[in-house]
Amino acid sequence: MSKKTVKVKIPATTANLGPGFDTFGLALSLYNEFVVQEENGVFIETYPKSDFLEDPHNNLYIQVVKYLCEREGKTFYGAKLKQVSNIPVARGLGSSASAIVAGILTGYAVHKKGLTDEEFFQIAYRFEPHPDNLLPAWKGGFIAALRTEEKTYYQRIDFPEDIKVVVVIPDFELSTQKAREVLPKTIPYRDAIFNLQRASLFITAIQSRKYDLLKVAMDDRLHQPYRKSLIPGFNEVIKSALDCGALGACLSGAGSTMLALATENFDKIGRSMVEAFSLHGIRAEHRVLEVDKEGAKVDIVEES
Ligand code: HSE
Asked: What is the set of domains in the chain, with CATH numbers?
């Protein structure tokens, strides 16, 4: 009998990009990898080692694979999983989306079925309701998405290759749930208009390569003003990025990571954002990332 190994590689993602709250998402060149074989019983190895992720009940990837197997009317006997996590957990860089997308693609690879958008969302939303992370993790690139009761609509646009994303990852976790609990139930009409204008300008600035518009276009009144109470040094980190020549800066997803878009001075921008965090007693590290255009990659290796 041949033994099948499925290898899945999923990019990190950043949602919102400032004004595009719950709408914009961008895939980044930082990856989680999942290498799995069918097995009797669940055996998980993690790199870096995580006792939490090695417990099958906490491991989102295993939960998704098990769910898909049962959805096919089959019994889930187990899996041998090697999980390499480069995307930090609970930092607004899409680590859960990576596990969900990887689990779905593994399930479909094993059961040899084509995956439609409709099926993807039906399954993915059982585990996380945010297309702004799920879609770029799956498809790569920059995506604008919206969800109605019936359907998810989305469109990908080309993101300029000369823009890099400087991410500054603080050493504290922030759950999306906590970062959503601080949001108000309603917002003033003028704030809705404020974001509508900036989100539209962001898209046109990207499409027309008018980078000087990004600074104003990446401002936001829907989520960052409320979330910044959870991010010590938020204003100073943004300012330090802009002072060093960043095109724009914002919170990554629900945080705690902050990011800057830039075409030069990448390390200088990163170091100054780290320094701004440190003045507020927060340790952080910076990474200079590219936009990932490919999205998820699946390899199936059969050994006889
Ligand atoms: N758009 C979501 C938020 C992303 O900002 O809460 C969370 O994954």
From this structure: 3-157+292-303 (3.30.230.10), 164-289 (3.30.70.890)
Q: Which atom of ligand 1 is nearest to the CA of 16?
A: 1
Question: What is the Cα–Cα distance from 244 to 241, expressed in whole angstroms?
Answer: 5
CB count, 10 Å around CB of 115?
A: 15
Model confidence pLDDT, tens digit, residues 167-200: 999 999 999 999 999 999 999 999 999 999 999 9
Atom of ligand 1 nearest to the CA of 254: 5
Ligand 1 centroid, distance to 222 Cα (angstroms): 12
User: What does the mean pLDDT of the chain come to?
Assistant: 95
Structure confidence by residue, pLDDT tens digits, 245-304: 999 999 999 999 999 999 999 999 999 999 999 999 999 999 999 999 999 999 998 876
**Ligand 1 atom closest to Cα of 97?**
8
Using the mean position of ligand 1's atoms as its centre, give its distance from the Cα of residue 40 in Å: 36
Report which of residues 215 and 38 the model is more confident about. 215
Ligand 1 centroid vs 223 CA: distance in angstroms?
9
Output the 3-class SS for 147-206. Answer: ECCCCEEEEEECCCCCCEEEEEEECCCCCHHHHHHCCCCCCCHHHHHHHHHHHHHHHHHH
CA of 22 to the centre of ligand 1 (A): 6
Mean pLDDT of 24-41: 96
